[in-house]
Design goal:
Layout (H helix, E strand, L loop, with lengths): L9 H11 L16 H12 L3 H4 L7 H22 E6 L12 E4 L6 H8 L2 H4 L2 E6 H4 L3 H11 L1 E4 L8 H12 L3 E4 L17 H9 L3 E7 L1 H4 L10 E3 L2 E3 L1 E7 L9 H13 L2
Parallel strand pairs: 1-9, 2-5, 2-6, 3-4, 3-5
Antiparallel strand pairs: 6-9, 7-8
Helix pairs in contact: 10-12
């Protein structure tokens, strides 16, 4: 038989001494609960999993990275988007009437949404905008995480619980305090139906926490060009050849946050559904 490991903690030694003397152990002594091997393994595994702040790539916000990102957008992404999409932007003047930082919230139907929205933003706003990206999707591989962070200036956010627990969103809180805008998709994932899904309250909570305006963005057409499951956009095929997909980006009126985060999110939801 395997030897039994004896508990040598102070409370255990006092209790053993009390039993030997025939007295009851003091009730004020804490009870040391022994955890099973599976429980210890799970606890250790959770401790080894990096948190969202630990997966962040701060170098993506350095001046060389910002210059690289602007060059990639101008010479690579913009030509690609122009080849596959015919873009129209409305309401961009609303951004000139707000004082940064702001929280930009958009509906999400395609991986094209982020480059299309970033290209539609004024340059001064875009250079100071971070994009919330799902930790479990974009940050599982270090190479992918670095590339996505560099090209789109993403920051990792957990989807569970809105990703807004203090320990999970501390890096986002610091960046907002430093004047960075945040682009966030409150649905948490791409819509499979094409219409807006149920919105989570994370954006409203962040806006109320930092007293920032919310600027809603409605985007249409990107799903036709690159639906979920596709890894590259396509053009519309016809008997005369092919043509581009019509894509529109609409900026709504800024929304002032309140303590009633549900009411704030309902306002955003109505804007998404007003197309």
């Amino acid at each position: 038989m395997l030897p039994v490991r004896r508990d040598t903690s102070l409370p255990a030694r006092v209790k053993r001494g009390a039993r030997q003397l025939g007295a009851a152990a003091p009730k004020w002594l804490p009870v040391r609960r022994k955890s099973s091997a599976p429980e210890r393994f799970k606890r250790r595994a959770r401790e080894l999993i990096p948190t969202a702040p630990q997966l962040d790539v701060p170098v993506a916000r350095s001046r060389p990275a910002i210059a690289t990102r602007e060059a990639v957008l101008r010479f690579v992404l913009n030509p690609l988007l122009t080849f596959y999409t015919r873009r129209r932007t409305s309401g961009r003047d609303k951004l000139s009437r707000v004082r940064p930082p702001v929280i930009l919230v958009a509906n999400h139907v395609s991986h094209l949404d982020t480059p299309v929205i970033l290209a539609a933003l004024p340059r001064r706003v875009r250079k100071r905008t971070i994009v919330a990206a799902a930790t479990d999707y974009f940050y599982r591989n270090r190479v992918v995480a670095f590339v996505v962070s560099l090209i789109f200036n993403t920051v990792p956010m957990d989807r569970g619980g809105g990703g807004l627990k203090r320990h999970a969103a501390s890096h986002v809180d610091r960046l907002l305090d430093k004047g960075w805008n945040l682009l966030l998709y409150p649905e948490g994932t791409r819509s499979r139906s094409g219409g807006p899904g149920r919105l989570r309250r994370g954006a409203a909570v962040l806006a109320a926490r930092h007293e920032l305006l919310i600027v809603p963005i409605r985007i249409t057409g990107t799903r036709d060009a690159m639906p979920p499951g596709r890894f590259w956009p396509s053009r519309i095929r016809s008997h005369n050849g092919s043509k581009r997909h019509a894509v529109s980006v609409s900026f709504g009126e800024p929304i002032k946050p309140t303590e009633d985060v549900s009411a704030t999110i309902d306002t955003v939801q109505r804007f998404f559904e007003s197309a």
